[in-house]
Amino acid sequence: MSQEIGQAGATAQHPSGLDYALQWAQLPSDHLQIALKALEPELKRTHEFRMQQDAHRQELELERLRLESAQKQLQDQLTFDETQAKRSHTLYMVGLIAGFVISAGMLTAAVIVGINNQPWLAAMLAGPSVISIASLFVLRKNDKTLNAATEQSHRRALNASQQPPQPPPAGGPVI
Predict the structure, then answer these.
(1) Can you tell me the mean pLDDT for 158-167?
(2) How far is CA 153 from its chain centroid?
(3) Which residues, 6+ apart, have CB-to-CB distance to 4 below 8 Å?
């Protein structure tokens, strides 16, 4: 007989399989047959219970796998979104830097050209074109009204620069 110690410290006796076999061996075969028939429904119930437990374990395992798959998809989506955000930020920063460099270059060129007595070219470089270039690179917008105004101002500046200079007024220079 196997022995177990209970909570109170007393030894509890539980019969083992060998003990059952020895008891069954002492009974006549008719009694044994009746006992086996009586045991059969309980064995079926135990088998059905174990099959249900196995099915439940399989369902739980499938649910766990589904949840892991969904979690992995969410993690992948999060990683993708973070990568996209980094790329977008990099593109935005490059646009800011490029817009600043081009605007600073145009303003510097306008100052140099203005010093060399070409005011219309300086006006073209420092005028609305700087604003439209900066808005294109920094804001990433192509405003049609701003483009039309820039085109119109360039056209006026080109027309004015191609006209022959007006002769000084008659009678000499005014001081």
Answers:
(1) 63
(2) 45
(3) 11, 12, 14
What distance, in Å, lies between the first and last C-alpha atoms of the chain? 134
Give the chain's radius of gyration (CA, Å). Answer: 47
Q: Are strands 2-5 and 11-14 parallel, antiparallel or unpaired?
A: antiparallel
Cβ neighbours of 9 (radius 10 Å) = 6
Q: How far apart are CA 89 and CA 95, in angstroms?
A: 10
In 106-141, which positions are buried (b, 16+ CB within 10 angstroms) versus exposed (e)? beeebeebbeeeeebbbbbbbbbbbebbbbbbbeee
Mind listing the pLDDT tens digit for each residue in 51-91?
999 999 999 999 999 999 999 999 999 999 999 999 999 99
Half-sphere exposure in the Cβ direction for 90 (13 Å, CA): 6
